[in-house]
Amino acid sequence: MPIPSRLNRTSPSKLPLLLLLILSGGLLPAGAPSKPARSTVVTGAWGGEHVILEASKAGAEVEFDCANGQISQPIVLDPHGNFDVGGTFIPEHGGPVRRNENPPPTPARYSGRVIVDTMRLEVTLGKDDVRTFALTRGFHPNLTKCR
User: Fold this and answer.
1) CA distance readout (Å), 57 to 61, 81, 96, 143
2) Of 25, 33, 40, 93, which has the fewest beta carbons less than 10 angstroms from its beta carbon?
3) Domain ranges in the chain?
């Protein structure tokens, strides 16, 4: 297969630069994306000890033994699989629950890292309250609800 004439005239000293431009997306056709699209957490169940996270394209519902939470935005992963999103956390308690009892949601940070089918999830409430969980995609744990 013949080498295109414009590449044929490229001096050997410029080939590493040319290769770098091609790999970085610098020579893509006009209108082509120059960076890979950012991915989101795979939808479905991610479960671990004392927690299950049901991810969707719009965010996630999180259920703990004695609490629940919500993430109402997509969980976007950086190129290394890291994420950091805001959400809410609502603690629950044992014993009877009154009909009009609706505890207000507490702001929470949901952060961590996804590597293939595993997720490290950190839930941060306030300054110093951080809870860490190990989750696996497709795992459905048995939660021990405190109700």
Assistant:
1) 11, 16, 35, 24
2) 33
3) 44-137
B/e letters for 22-61, b = 16+ CB within 10 Å, e = fewer, are eeeeeeeeeeeeeeeeeebbeeeebbbeebbbebeeebbe
Tokens of 113: 């890292």
pLDDT in tens, the chain (147 residues): 555 544 445 455 554 544 444 444 444 445 555 455 579 999 999 999 999 999 999 999 999 999 999 999 999 999 999 999 999 999 988 877 778 888 889 999 999 999 999 999 999 998 889 999 999 999 999 999 886
Tokens 């000890």 — which residue? 49
Residue 117: CA count within 13 A, CB half-sphere: 6
DSSP-derived secondary structure for 80-125: TSEEEEEEEEEE--SS---TT--PPPEEEEEEEEEETTEEEEEEEE
